[in-house]
Amino acid sequence: MYLLITKAFISGVVIVVVSELAKKNNLLASIVHSLPLTSLLAFIWLYSETKDAALIGRHAYGTFWFVLPTLPMFLLMPWLIRKLGAFWPALGAGIVLSIGLYWLTMRLLDAAGVKL
Fold it and tell me: What is the pLDDT of residues 57-92, one digit of tens each?
């Protein structure tokens, strides 16, 4: 239980640091936010608990394929925010776009014979 609480605390600190940094220096916060911190933390937590490097390799491979369908959201959201002047509709549209692209990615990977 202690490890779970520690993992949650450290992971939460990363999110708070990025959001607070964005208030002061958006460029630096954007760079930090673009780092795959969640993935790196997940790799570390998973490896520390399992010591299974092959599992981490499979997880990293799958993560690569599922990062790709999220990237267009980072272009759609700022464009919609400029056009609509509203955050929530832009976020909703970004989520819907990502879900659709996840679905398409899974279909394309399956058709290409890529096993995750």
Answer: 999 999 999 999 999 999 999 999 999 999 999 999
**Distances, alpha carbon 98 to alpha carbons 2, 19, 52, 63, in Å:** 34, 22, 30, 14
Which residues 6+ apart lie within 8 Å of 9 measured at CB?
none
Say which amino acid occupies 35. Answer: L
Q: CB-side exposure of 105: number of CA atoms within 13 Å?
A: 18
Domain boundaries, the chain: 52-116
CA distances to 3, 22, 32, 51, 71 from 26, rounded to whole Å, are 32, 4, 10, 37, 19
